[in-house]
Amino acid sequence: MNAADITSAVAGILIAITAITALIIAWKQISVLKEVSAIEAYEAYHELAIQYPEFSGGADPESLSPLELERYISFVLYVLMVGDRIYNLFPRSEEWRNTIADDIDLHKGLILSPYFDRYREADWDIQHLIDRMIGAEK
Asked: pLDDT band for position 80 (50/70/90)?
C-alpha cells in the first residue's frame, strides 16, 4: 500500500466521521425544534386560558349564553388543535400525552354534548383526535 492509498483511505474515514457527526447534530437540532414547537403551542394555549379563565377549567354548556357557548366551543377547538399538534410532534411521549389528556378532560362536558356534534363531523379528523385523547365515551 502506497502513500496515496493510505491518504485516500484516511480521507474516506474522515468524510464518514464528518457525515455521521453532521447527522447526529441535525437529529439533535430537529429534536430541540420539536420540543420548542410543542412548548410554544402549549404556552399559547395557557395564554388563552388566562385570557378566558371562565373556560379554562371547563364550563357547563347549558349555563352559557349563545355567544358564550360559541366562545367556549372555539376555546375547546383550540385546545384540541394544540393537543393534536403536540401529539403529532411526540406521538410516543407518555408525559405529553397525559398533559394533553388532562387538559382535554376538563372539557369533556362540552366535547361529548350535542353542542359539539357538528365539529366532530368537520372535514378534519376531530373525532379521531377526541377518541385518541379521551376515548370514545359517547
From this structure: confident
- Report the C-alpha gap between 20 and 3 in whole angstroms: 26
The whole-angstrom separation of Cα 76 and Cα 106 is 10
Judge if pTM exceeds 0.85. Answer: no
Q: Tell me if 129 sits within 8 A of 103, measured CB to CB.
A: no
Nearest in space to 111 (alpha carbons), one of 92, 129, 89, 84: 129
Place 54 in a pLDDT band, splitting at 50, 70 and 90: very high
Each residue of 28-38: pLDDT tens digit?
888 778 888 88
SS3 88: helix
> In terms of Cα–Cα distance, which of 38, 46, 123, 45 is closest to 88?
38
CA distances from 42 to 47, 74, 80, 94, 131 (A): 9, 16, 11, 16, 20
Q: How far is CA 137 from CA 27, 44, 73, 112, 132, in A?
A: 39, 28, 19, 8, 11
CA distance 12 to 1: 16
